[in-house]
Specification:
This protein has about 280 residues and is of the alpha/beta class. It has 2 domains: about 1-95 and about 225-280, 3-Layer(aba) Sandwich (Rossmann fold); about 100-225, Rossmann fold (3-Layer(aba) Sandwich), CATH 3.40.50.1860. The protein is built from 11 helices and 10 strands. The strands form 2 sheets. A 6-stranded parallel β-sheet has the order 4-3-1-2-9-10, sandwiched between helices. It has a 4-stranded parallel β-sheet with strand order 6-5-7-8. α3 links the parallel β3 (about 65) and β4 (about 95). α4 (about 100-105) packs parallel to α6. The radius of gyration is 18 Å and the shape is globular. The protein starts with a strand and ends with a strand. Bound molecules: D-glutamic acid. D-glutamic acid binds next to α3.
Length: about 280
């Protein structure tokens, strides 16, 4: 069973793609709705909450956990992988959602830490939309810069956007907010059309059309769910010991630290997913 974690419902956009791409795998989804949004918390709390959530999923039987939250992955993933996991679950693995996106941006596979002179720069100008915490962490900038130093990234924080999506804000309110952030991001770069826009928050694929309307039609929008699903399929091919394929019928379960009846806007996230949330404490 594969664990999928997000601060709230955003990770369901990733789960949806995983469920489709990996029909034989079972999944346990955990949303920490009671303490979301993480985008407004300090790093110490993001690290402790994320560690607690990963620990819960591992105690529940997940040997592999995907942190389907850019904020949690940007702030906490490295510490969890390097310090916490080897001490508590040395045979388990935790993966994030940044690596597949950075690979797509840089066009350089992760195992090659430095660019090679033959590497062709796929995108020269990129605009990244994410939570304030992800922007502040500079994780995307640093990782892309290592692999594709010629690629320049404009970072734009969209404070409160994940919360608006989660609470089911109206289409017009979302449209106005996204148009504002897009104008802010590109304001100082008049006449330059970004080659790509990264939706660096797992909530944002649900409003991809609004980013599309605000951006130039030639800007390619990159969103994580399909990239992460492709990367996980590849990972399980290389590490079949983490796969549950061939072990009977799949199960997909959803847990929340919040009140399942009060998860607003959930229908939007669950359109293609079967089942219902149950409450848990960590
Ligand atoms: N879905 C989370 C992400 O990908 C952010 C939401 C939050 O602020 O909790 O960054």
């Amino acid at each position: 069973m594969i664990g999928v974690f997000d601060s709230g419902s955003g990770g369901l956009t990733v789960l949806n793609a995983l469920v489709e791409a990996l029909p034989e795998e079972s999944f346990l989804y955990l949303g920490d709705h009671a303490r979301a949004p993480y985008g407004d918390l300090d790093n110490r709390h993001i690290l402790s909450h994320t560690t607690e959530a990963v620990d819960f999923l591992m105690r529940s039987g997940c040997r592999l956990v995907v942190i389907a939250c850019n904020t949690a992955a940007s702030v906490a993933l490295r510490t969890i992988q390097q310090d916490w996991l080897p001490r508590h679950y040395p045979h388990n693995r935790v993966l994030g959602v940044l690596v597949p996106m950075v690979e797509a941006l840089a066009g350089v596979p992760w195992h090659r830490d430095h660019p090679h002179e033959d590497d062709i720069l796929r995108y020269r100008r990129v605009v990244l939309f994410a939570t304030s915490k992800t922007v502040e962490s500079r994780a995307y900038l640093e990782e892309v810069n290592k692999r594709a130093p010629g690629c320049s990234i404009i970072q734009q924080a969209c404070p409160g956007l994940a919360g608006m999506i989660e609470e089911g804000a109206s289409e017009s309110a979302l449209q106005e907010a996204i148009a504002g952030w897009t104008a802010q991001a590109l304001g100082g770069h008049a006449g330059e059309v970004p080659d790509a826009a990264v939706l660096g928050c797992t909530h944002y694929p649900l409003v991809r059309h609004l980013f599309g309307a605000a951006l130039h039609p030639e800007t390619q929008i990159l969103s994580q769910p399909d990239l992460v699903a492709e990367a996980l399929r590849d990972y399980l091919r290389r590490r079949p010991d983490f796969s549950g394929a061939g072990q009977g019928a799949r199960s997909i379960r959803y847990l929340t630290t919040g009140e399942p009846g009060r998860l607003h806007g959930l229908a939007r996230f669950m359109q293609h997913l079967p089942g219902q949330f149950s409450r848990t404490s960590l």
